[in-house]
Every structure is written in C-alpha cells, then in structure tokens.
Amino acid sequence: MREKIVAGNWKMNTSIEEGRQLVEDILAGMDRVPEGVSLIVAPPFTHLFLIAHLLGNRKNPGLAAQNCADKKSGAYTGEVSASMLASVPCGYVILGHSERREYYAETDQTLLEKIKLALSEGLRPIFCVGEVLEDRESNMHFQVISSQLREVLCQLGPEDFKKIIVAYEPVWAIGTGNTATSDQAQEMHAFIRAFLAETFGDLAESTPILYGGSCKPSNARDIFSQPDVDGGLIGGASLKADDFLAIAGSFA
Ligand code: PEP
C-alpha cells in the first residue's frame, strides 16, 4: 500500500495570525481525514516555528517548507538552509515548484544540490515536475517530464530515492482553474512511475506521486480514484481549511 498524502502549499499567503487560525481550523477538522491519509501543510518560512509548536508531537499534519537553499551554510544573505528547516523541526520541503523554476531560474543542477542537502538533514523532498502548455500541445510533455526526473531524481542512490515524494503539476493547470482530466493525470503518473522504475526497479512502486493543479473539492475524488494518483499538492484550495479537509476526505 502506498502512502496517501494531501499537501497544502500556501505559497506567499497569510499573515502569521491567519496561518495560526488556518492550522487550528485544520486540527479541529482532522476527524474528516480518512485513516491512512497524511496531511502536510507548507506555510511561508516565517510561520514554520510557530506552526511546529502548534502541531506539537502530532505526526499528522506534517510540516513542510516551500524551498531551501542550495548551499549548506554561510554568507548567503536571505537564504534558509536545509539544516535550519530540520531544526524547526520540519519534516518535508517542496522543491522544484514551477514558480521557483520560472521566476527564480532554478535549474536541474540547483535542484539536485537542494535535494541532496535536504536528504542529508533528514527532510523528505516533495519534488515537483510539470510541463507548460506549449510542451503538451506539441506532444513533448513526456520528454519534458523524463528530463526533469532524469537530471535530478535519477541521480540519487536508492536509499535517498525511497524518501522522495513526487508531485506532477502541469504548469497550465496551476492556479488557472484548468485541472488535468483524471485520464491525463493517470497517464502521466503511470509514465512517471514506469520511468522511475527503469532506474530504481520495484522501489518506484512505493513512491507517492501527488497531482497538483487547480485541485479542489469538486474534482479531487475523480482524480484521486486513479490507480497511480496517491494524493494531491494543493495551492489555492489549501488556504481554506474546509476545502483542504474536503479534498483530504475525497479518497474512496
Ligand atoms: C501549486 O502551486 O502547487 C498548486 C497546485 O496550485 P493550485 O492548486 O492553486 O493550482
């Protein structure tokens, strides 16, 4: 049985007070989360310590950062290292989100550095891959995703790979309201798993692959019902506890 995960990427939203309230509302509704489903919240850096305190010893929800530095420590003004995140403590870090690839010019090489540092600090990376609309329209989407996987995840050893969570997030679906159909999601998730199996064999059977891109309570059930979809990485809808919990409740 693969892990089932619903992770909320808050992006650059919420004040500390709003973030605190959102977590309290999620905690108050945890009875809506089916057994065996893990929630993860990914607030901005400034909120992590407070939210770690609110979560206390609970394993569920887990806590993720939205990024980490590609350097271990030192004179890198404005950066936050993987070891700082581990000391919060955070359990996870989102890496390779398309917004970071596009607006902050993150490359496969930087992402590989970040993933290695995160893993060395005991953090589990949630590694995002996804194609832009042009790639899909020119039928290049499988090639784009294979390249993103080959250059980063396939460079890891099997022990490190076991800790990875993949998020397939078609860029044309993020924040646009244009969700991938459940068939499109299943097709790509199965492709990702098969591609990873070429390097990691049976280990890829256990890799959680989350779908992200305009996932909401009205479409989550259909998407999550697909055999290779193990949950979701949720942006906009994770900012409302009720929607986030409804999405988590969408596993059959
Ligand atoms: C995301 O940015 O990870 C995401 C999935 O956003 P949204 O759900 O808002 O499309």
Question: Any overview of this molecule?
Answer:
Helices cover 40% and strands 15% of the residues. The protein has 252 residues and is of the alpha/beta class. The chain has one domain (4-249): TIM Barrel. It has an 8-stranded parallel β-barrel with strand order 1-2-3-4-5-6-7-8, surrounded by 6 helices. Strand 3 (62-65), helix 3 and strand 4 form a beta-alpha-beta unit. Helix 7 runs parallel beside helix 9. The longest helix has 19 residues, at 182-200. Phosphoenolpyruvate binds at residues 9, 169, 174-175, 212-215, 233-237.
Tally of distinct domains? 1
Query: What oligomeric state do these chains adopt?
Result: single chain
Give the CATH class: Alpha Beta
Total number of β-strand segments?
Answer: 8
Q: What ligand molecules are bound, each kind once?
A: phosphoenolpyruvate
Tell the overall outline: globular
Number of helices: 11
Widest beta sheet: strand line-up? 1-2-3-4-5-6-7-8
Annotation keywords:
binds phosphoenolpyruvate, 40% helix, alpha/beta
Give the topology, please.
Elements: E1 4-9, H1 16-28, E2 37-42, H2 48-55, E3 62-65, H3 82-87, E4 92-95, H4 98-103, H5 108-120, E5 124-129, H6 133-137, H7 141-151, H8 158-161, E6 165-168, H9 182-200, E7 209-212, H10 217-224, E8 231-234, H11 241-248
Parallel strand pairs: 1-2, 1-8, 2-3, 3-4, 4-5, 5-6, 6-7, 7-8
Helix pairs in contact: 1-2, 1-11, 7-9, 10-11
Bound molecules: phosphoenolpyruvate.
